[in-house]
Amino acid sequence: MNEQIVPDTEHRGIVARLPQLPRDLAQLGRFDRPIGWWLLFWPCVWGVWLSGSGSQFALLGLFLLGSIAMRGAGCVYNDIVDAKLDAKVARTAVRPVASGRVSKKLAWCWLIALSLIGLIVLLQLRIEAQVVALASLALVAAYPFMKRITWWPQAWLGMVFSWGLPVGWFAMRSDNLDVLAAVYAGTVLWIIGYDTIYALQDREDDALVGIRSSALRMGSHVQGGVGLFYLGAVGLWGLGVWFYRPDWIALLALVPVALHLFWQVATLDPDDADNPLARFRSNRWAGALMAAACFVVGNA
């Protein structure tokens, strides 16, 4: 039954072989759903590679570890805050805290452990990047409450999941903030788009329990709405590239990611049970294509 209710679980093999408590903790940190930390990690890569500092693979390894740990910590915090709401939604009712398999006290301990890993990573960065990273904590803490007070919690998530971009940038340099601002704003729009696609899975349950989302707000116009957000994302990314390197040829680096996002919108079927999840997951490749563009623009 769990397999049917939680359709976005991936790589069940390793997690499924764990004893009950470690399996519950792994699921609580969403280690069975790597798409989340990919989406948190890619903006970090963009910031580093667009800065023109070369490949920096050791640093990116730290960012990957930090993304896995802090995405897990964020999910644990979200599940603690949303335990009662999650219990009312079919897809989330079997989550460890909502179902009662993991106590809130143990969940808090797990949150602290994951946060300590993130702290170790943070201390490896230069001070400017540390300050920028710590500035995100208020955004992270407020996010679970946004779905109760606004139809656009995806916009708040956009600010949170984009934060790796300025952290990566400030880990390398502190100038050209116009470039950073444009690319960051575009990344926020990209995240609003893909998280709206993700929210399509829960429209009926969200409406019943009073959870707000951009997918519900857009209604029958969700496909066009996502398209507009993606178009704005590509436009702002292009503006950032132009600020960095005013050369029309440099803009060609964005063509692959732009085509991928167009494909997502063109093939999105909001009423298909599996289609939105597949399109959402494909954003790991959108992130990779944008990373390639940033490397080309920043280091070519």
Written account of the structure:
- With 300 residues, this protein is mainly alpha-helical.
- The protein has a single domain (18-299), classed as Tetracycline Repressor, domain 2 (Orthogonal Bundle).
- The chain is built from 20 helices and no strands.
- It has helices at residues 2-5, 12-16, 20-28, 35-50, 57-81, 83-86, 96-99, 104-122, 127-134, 137-149, 153-161, 164-170, 177-199, 203-209, 214-218, 222-244, 248-251, 255-267, 275-281, 283-299.
- It is globular and about 55 Å long.
- Residues 1-8 have low confidence and may be disordered.
In short:
This protein has 20 helices and no strands. It has 300 residues and is an all-alpha fold.
Feature tags:
300 residues; mainly alpha; Tetracycline Repressor, domain 2; 74% helix; 0% strand; globular
Number of alpha- plus pi-helical segments: 20
Distance between the termini: 51 Å
Largest sheet: none
CATH 4th-level superfamily: UbiA prenyltransferase
Q: Approximately how much beta-strand content do the residues carry? A: under 5%
Count all strands and give the number.
Answer: 0
EC number: 2.5.1.39
Membrane topology: Multi-pass membrane protein
Enzyme class: transferase
GO molecular function: 4-hydroxybenzoate polyprenyltransferase activity
